[in-house]
Design brief:
The chain is of the alpha+beta class. The protein contains nine helices and 15 strands. The longest helix has 19 residues.
């Protein structure tokens, strides 16, 4: 008899109602249709603490956080082949041991990153996440690796759960900070933007690796300076740096100039304990024309990018657009709609955006685990990087520093390529701080920039 066959009990050895079931939302169902074993859809969160954690106490705190955010306690429900929907089955307790403590070793962080990219927690066991607690061999601190099956959950939702665990563990207030105040005014109703009907540029192939899956590099940079009163935000600076990075990379590799489109997740959820748990972001696409990315008018590009991002954020839009809602309507059995979705995804590949920039912004929680463990001084996220995009850029700010993760498909890029892209990103991000000054010399492979790279995954 499987776990799903056992009736739930009410504590008196008597049966109670079957576990509640929730139909997959649109984002979850599309992701479920398109799962690939070679490139698992995982989100990785990496939290660095200065001290050490007590294993038993952490397990108790994290289990308590799961119960406080009980929507995370779910697994994919079994069903006949002809069912018309996938469903989540909510569980009262975890099915598996979520928190583990791998044995210490010299390359512990690299191995933990490798696992976060290569292996997704199964959807068949509740909850579809895992937390690894790793000793940092360089500074004798602790690193929490949270690996999330992106079919079920996203990074901000799981960070909320981790903040609750920190509060339960250390007894410190981990309430979210107030979001920064924006003074840019109302969103423009009309913006100057390239057409979205033209197939966008792809990231040019570098030196592909023979092994499948994703590679990743994480770096710590300065948060870019933004002149007081400027109409753009740090997010706009990151967007421009990403676009300029890819345009430069493609020129180096002889790609014909084409418009770029960068997918930007927008998350409107509250960050308190009432935050909805699941996949809660909606995706918008920010376009750039080839002429804009020649590095001759950075001030103008920053202003236009600010107008576009503000207008896109203000527009009401389904999470994946209107077409996805039609695909996930229960008009046919799940296997038929899954085959159609995969076929349409392949056909639409030329129109898929060039890359994804996910800017978490300032991490809203202290992630303070109290005496002995301390407060997080670095937090990295990374998003899946399946082809045809093949590259994602994720940023977050903690303790006054910008934490950048580049993640790529190994069929597109190598670790050396990732290092060069990191240098380009840092160069152009620095250029946005001095947009009114003459352009500086661009970096080359022979002359890397002097940012502070942090340990990244090897090939």
């Amino acid at each position: 008899m499987t776990t799903l066959d056992h009736p739930a009990r009410d504590g008196t050895d008597g049966p109670v109602r079957p576990p509640a079931r929730i139909p997959f939302p649109v984002v979850d169902e599309v992701a479920r249709h398109c799962l690939q074993e070679e490139e698992p859809e995982t989100v990785h969160i990496e939290v660095h603490l200065p001290g050490h954690l007590d294993p038993a106490r952490l397990k108790t705190a994290f289990t308590g956080a799961l119960h406080r955010h009980s929507r995370i306690l779910m697994r994919e429900a079994a069903g006949p082949w002809y069912r018309r929907r996938y469903e989540w089955e909510l569980t009262r307790d975890p099915d598996v041991e979520v928190v583990t403590f791998p044995a210490p070793d010299r390359d512990a962080l690299k191995h933990a990153r490798d696992r976060a990219l290569a292996s997704a927690p199964p959807l068949s066991a509740s909850p579809p996440i895992r937390l690894e607690v790793v000793r940092d061999p360089e500074d004798d601190g602790t690193v929490l690796f949270l690996t999330i099956n992106h079919t079920a959950l996203d990074g901000p939702a799981c960070l909320r759960v981790l903040a609750t665990a920190a509060e339960l563990y250390g007894g410190r207030d981990n309430a979210p900070a107030a979001p920064p105040t924006r003074t840019a005014g109302a969103a423009p109703t009309e913006v100057d933007a390239p057409s979205s009907w033209t197939p966008p540029a792809r990231v040019a192939h570098g030196t592909p690796e023979p092994s499948p899956g994703n590679g990743m590099l994480v770096s710590e940079l300065n948060v870019p300076h933004r002149p007081k009163g400027s109409p753009y935000t740090v997010n706009d600076q990151l967007m421009v740096a990403t676009a300029m990075m890819i345009a430069h990379w493609n020129r180096e590799h002889g790609a014909h100039p084409r418009p770029l489109r960068i997918t930007m997740p927008v998350d409107d959820r509250p960050r308190g304990t009432d935050m909805p748990i699941g996949n809660g972001t909606r995706l918008v696409e920010v376009p750039f024309s080839p002429a804009e990315l020649d590095d001759s008018d950075l001030p103008g590009l920053l202003r236009r990018t600010a107008d576009r991002t503000r207008a896109l954020k203000a527009q009401p839009r389904p999470q994946l657009g209107h077409g996805a809602a039609l695909l996930t309507a229960p008009w046919a059995p799940v296997p038929w709609r899954a085959a159609l979705t995969r076929g349409l995804r392949r056909a639409a590949a030329p129109w898929t955006s060039t890359t994804l920039l996910s800017n978490i912004g300032r991490v809203p929680y202290p992630l303070d685990f109290g005496e002995g463990a301390g407060r997080a001084h670095a937090v990295w996220f990374s998003a899946p990087a399946r082809m045809p995009r093949g590259l994602t850029v994720t940023t977050a700010a903690t303790a006054g520093r910008l934490h950048l993760a580049l993640r790529w498909s190994r069929t597109l890029l190598s670790h050396g390529d990732g290092c060069h892209l990191r240098d380009l990103f840092e160069h152009y991000l620095h250029a946005t701080e001095h947009a009114e000054e003459p352009a500086r010399e661009k970096p080359t492979r022979e002359k890397p920039t002097t940012g502070k790279p942090t340990r990244g995954n090897g090939p």
